[in-house]
TrEMBL record:
It comes from the Bacteria. InterPro entries: DUF1398 (IPR009833), YdfO-like_sf (IPR036696). This is DUF1398 domain-containing protein. Pfam families: DUF1398.
């Protein structure tokens, strides 16, 4: 798979919530090293091993990001989304209400970290590989 916007979009269409480990694998196969999703600004930045970046329009939440983050709420939102109970736009809105404005996927470390407005990692999870 090539590191192109088209390949990234195709992977997103193919793999959703419960299939996140497969999306992660597709990203890795493209040579991607990180993905930062900012739901406050509605952008996703993808970076490959050569340092090349692709910035794409993403989901921008309609509500302001909560000033205070709630760890247990974030964990509950993640559990429900990973079980296929919410679609991606709903997941983003719920994360905003729980105080998360972005998440950072580190492909090499195999982690996804959810970050609040104070730049604090609220939840970091290992991605099954």
């Amino acid at each position: 798979m090539e590191f192109t916007l088209k390949s990234i979009q195709e992977a997103h269409e193919k793999y959703t919530g419960p299939d996140f480990p497969m999306l992660f694998k597709a990203f890795k196969d493209m040579g991607m090293v990180s993905n930062e999703v900012n739901i406050q600004h509605g952008t996703s930045v993808y970076t490959n091993t050569d340092g090349q970046t692709i910035t794409a329009e993403g989901v921008k939440v309609s509500h302001p990001i909560a000033d205070t983050s709630h760890v247990e709420e974030v964990k509950d939102i993640l559990t429900r989304h990973q079980a296929g109970q919410t679609d991606f736009p709903t997941f983003c809105e719920e994360m905003a209400q729980a105080g998360i404005y972005k998440w950072f996927i580190d492909i090499n470390a195999g982690t996804c970290s959810y970050i609040d407005l104070n730049q604090q990692t609220i939840v970091s999870e290992q991605i099954p590989q």
